[in-house]
Amino acid sequence: MSNLTFGIIKPDAVKAGNHGKIIDRILAAGFKIRGLKLIHQTREEAEGFYAVHAGKGFFDELVDFMSSGPCVVLALEKDGAVKAWRDLMGATNPAEAAEGTLRKEFASSIGENAVHGSDSDENAAIEVAYFFSKLELV
């Protein structure tokens, strides 16, 4: 089990001005932020990041959305980071997310669900490396 995971505060949450509130919640949940950047992905960058979903029905919509505006990428540290971050995010569908989760509070739909998180330690390592160099992780 790794102590590092990857998260994105998606364009919908940044556009709504909720990224500061989400970062506050991350810190309150005991995570240490090891990397943080405000970025605006190109379509090509988003396609590369979500390549695992290429060919799926939602791929083009996802890439369009993720390249539609600025987002915040984060490298987060905590014991059992992947599970802890996924628990804080809540269910993908905000209507099914538990009270007190980020998606319940900040997401508007399955497609625009405020935050992304790695689903495994292996993917966390890949996703952190996609957006952060070793020099950018403190």
How do the strands and helices of this protein lay out in sequence?
Layout: E1 4-9, H1 11-15, H2 19-28, E2 32-39, H3 43-49, H4 59-66, E3 71-77, H5 81-89, H6 102-106, E4 115-117, H7 121-131
Antiparallel strand pairs: 1-3, 1-4, 2-3
Description:
- The structure is a single chain.
- The protein has 138 residues and is an alpha+beta fold.
- It has one domain (4-40, 70-136): 2-Layer Sandwich (Alpha-Beta Plaits).
- Helix content is 40%, strand content 17%.
- It is globular, with a radius of gyration of 14 Å.
Strand content: 15-25%
Radius of gyration: 14 Å
Q: How many beta-strand segments?
A: 4
- Residue-averaged pLDDT, rounded? 96
The count of domains is 1
Number of helices: 7
CATH topology: Alpha-Beta Plaits
Which term fits the overall shape? globular
What kind of sheet is the major sheet? 4 strands, antiparallel
Query: At the fourth CATH level, what is the homologous superfamily?
Result: Nucleoside diphosphate kinase-like domain
Distance between the termini: 20 Å
Report strand order across the widest sheet: 2-3-1-4
The amount of helix comes to 25-40%
Q: What is the H/E string?
A: EHHEHHEHHEH
SS content category? alpha+beta
The parts where pLDDT drops under 50 for at least 5 residues are none
Per CATH, which architecture? 2-Layer Sandwich
Level-1 CATH class name: Alpha Beta
Defining traits:
138 residues, four-stranded antiparallel beta sheet, Alpha-Beta Plaits, alpha+beta, globular, single chain
Provide a compact summary of the structure.
The protein is α+β, with helices and mostly antiparallel strands. It has one domain: Nucleoside diphosphate kinase-like domain (Alpha-Beta Plaits).
